[in-house]
Amino acid sequence: MKERYSGDADNLFCTAAKTLYPYIDAELTQLPLTAATTRELVMTDTNSIGLHEGSASQLAEKLNDLLANYQIFYMNVRGYHWNVRGSDFFELHAKFEEFYTDLLTKVDEVAERILTLGHKPVHAYSDYVSLSRIQEDKDVHDGTTCVKGVLKGYQTIIELQRELLSLASDADDEGTASQASDYIREQEKTIWMLNAYLSK
Ligand SMILES: [Fe+2]
Questions:
Q1: Predicted model pTM
Q2: CA of 200 to the centre of ligand 1 (A)
Q3: How far is the CA of 75 from the centre of ligand 1 (A)?
Q4: Residue 34 belongs to what domain range?
C-alpha cells in the first residue's frame, strides 16, 4: 500500500498516526517511521473491535472495578430487601427488589462488555470484596438507613462510571462510553428520587 502515498503524504500519515496513537513511539526502537510500518503497528496492536490493545486492557481493568462495586452493591440491596423492618416495610421491600433486579442486569452487561473488549470479567466474591470501593453493609434493618445505603451506593457507582466514561472517551471506545453515560443518566434520576424520599 505504501506505493500509493507520496513522501509528503507518508510523513503526514505518520504524524497523524503518532498523534492518534502515541503508544507507537514507545514501541519503536528505530526512527524514522515509514507509513507502511506505522500502519502495520496501528493495525496489529488493535483488538477484534478495532480498539488499541493497551487501551482495551485499561478499560477492562476499570470495568472490573465497576463490576466488583455492582456485585457488592447488589448484595447490600438484597440484604436491605430481606432485613428492612417498620411501617414502610411493604413499600421498601418491593422497591429494593426493583433496585437489585436492575443492578443484576447491569452486572451482566458490564461483564459482557469486558468480554467484548477481549478480556475476562472477575467472577470470585473474594476479588469483588478486595476491588470494591463500596463496602459490605451488614445487618441493617431501619428503612431510612437502608435507603441511605442505596443512595451512597449509587453515588459511588456514578463516580466510577464518570471515571470510566473519561477513559473510554480518550480511547475512542464509543461502546463503553455510551453504556456508562446511559447508566449515569438513569442513576442520577434515581438519586433525585431517593433524596426526595429521604426529605419527606
Ligand atoms: Fe424477595
A1: 0.79
A2: 26
A3: 13
A4: 2-44
